[in-house]
Design brief:
Helix content is about 0%, strand content about 50%. It is mainly β.
C-alpha cells in the first residue's frame, strides 16, 4: 500500500514558478514509477510528467517540456514537480500517482496507476 500526499500548490501570476511535492509512504518507494497528472475544470485528467524508480528516466508531455522538471528524493520518499514560466493554461488540480514497474510506454495513461494523491490546486492568473 502506498499513500501519496501532495503539497505546494497556490496562486501565481503568469511567468511565475511553483514547486509541488508528493510525499509517499511505504518502504518500497524506490521501486515505483511516479508521475504527475493534472485536471482542469471540464477537462479530462492529463499526463504531465513521469520518473522511473530504477534509473530515474524522465518523460514529459510536450506542452511542459523545458518549463517543468520532475525529480525524486529517495531518502525523503518524495517526488517533486518544479514549474517554471507558468501560463494560465497550466491552471488545474495537480495529482501525484504511483505505479509499479510500468515501463515508459505506459506512463502517460492514468488508468495504469494504482495509487493517487488527493491533488493540489495550481492557479495561474493572467
Amino acid at each position: 500500500q502506498v499513500q501519496l500526499v501532495e503539497s505546494g500548490g497556490g496562486l501565481v501570476q503568469t511567468g511565475g514558478s511553483l514547486r509541488l511535492s508528493c510525499a509517499a509512504s511505504g518502504p518500497t518507494f524506490r521501486m515505483y514509477d511516479m508521475a504527475w497528472f493534472r485536471q482542469a475544470p471540464g477537462k479530462e485528467r492529463e499526463f504531465v510528467a513521469a520518473i522511473s524508480g530504477t534509473d530515474l528516466n524522465t518523460y514529459y508531455t510536450d506542452s511542459v517540456k523545458g518549463r517543468f522538471t520532475i525529480s525524486r528524493d529517495m531518502a525523503k520518499n518524495t517526488v517533486y514537480l518544479q514549474l517554471y514560466s507558468l501560463k494560465p493554461e497550466d491552471t488545474a488540480v495537480y495529482y501525484c500517482a504511483a505505479a509499479y514497474g510500468l515501463g515508459d510506454a505506459l506512463w502517460p495513461e492514468a488508468r495504469n496507476y494504482r495509487y493517487w494523491g488527493q491533488g493540489t490546486q495550481v492557479t495561474v492568473s493572467s
